[in-house]
Amino acid sequence: MSDAAARGPSRRFFLGATAGAAAAPMAPVSAQPVREDASIAGPVALTVNGREYHRQLDVRTTLLDALREHLGLTGAKKGCDHGQCGACTVLVDGRRVLACLTLARAVEGREVTTIEGLAGPNGDLHPMQAAFIEADGFQCGYCTPGQIISAVACVQEGHAESDDAIREYMSGNLCRCAAYPRIVEAIRAARQRMRAA
Ligand code: FES
Ligand code: FES
């Protein structure tokens, strides 16, 4: 007896048989096996931090996976991968979005900014990055790229006028280390510098 026969019906066989049976009243049973690895890849052009990238990506690839696994930009973090933690926050045309819930293909022709793109061309930190360091606005740092990107947008939106507003409009960015008081302090300080810049 072959190894396959000894193992009994495979999952692929079972799925193929089930799909065929379900379709029977509508059409002749197809002999085509079910493809478990089906993917539809195509060219995608992304503009990230002012640079254009061209990749062949599955249509289902999220912006977060495209950044991290195909462009080598690992600043945006994968926390929950379900839109709940904010660790993956990036800017698209200046607005914050959750990269784990955004398809890469959906942002073609738009400008994506990640934490890697915040510093100036000569390496000077963005005022928000500098303020986070000065205020000790992190502990493990895992949430920090998302916090900083989100904080930049929060100030630009005019939603950082008070500590209460900062807390409210930063509530989509969770910090497991609970560095919240210092994050608020950092945003308050950076708000003044961003206005002065
Ligand atoms: S990884 Fe996107 S919201 Fe958590
Ligand atoms: S600094 Fe650790 S999760 Fe925020």
Please characterize this protein's 3D structure.
This protein is of the alpha+beta class and 197 residues long. Helices cover 36% and strands 14% of the residues. It is built from seven helices and five strands, in the order H-H-E-E-H-E-E-E-H-H-H-H. Strands 2-1-5-3-4 form a five-stranded mixed β-sheet, sandwiched between helices. The longest helix is centred in the last third of the chain and has 17 residues, at 180-196. It is globular. The termini are far apart. Residues 1-30 have low confidence and may be disordered. Bound molecules: FE2/S2 (inorganic) cluster (2 copies). The site of one FE2/S2 (inorganic) cluster has 12 residues, from loops.
Order of helices and strands: HHEEHEEEHHHH
Distance between the termini: 76 Å
Rg calculated over all Cα atoms = 23 Å
Strand content range:
5-15%
Cross-sheet strand order for the largest sheet: 2-1-5-3-4
Average the pLDDT over all residues and give the rounded result.
Answer: 87
Category from helices, strands and their pairing? alpha+beta
Question: What ligands can be seen in this structure?
Answer: FE2/S2 (inorganic) cluster
Described by its quaternary structure, the protein is single chain
User: Total number of β-strand segments?
Assistant: 5
Helical run tally: 7
Helix content: 25-40%
Largest beta sheet, briefly? 5 strands, mixed
Question: Ranges with pLDDT <50 over ≥5 residues?
Answer: 1-30
Shape, principal axes of CA atoms:
globular
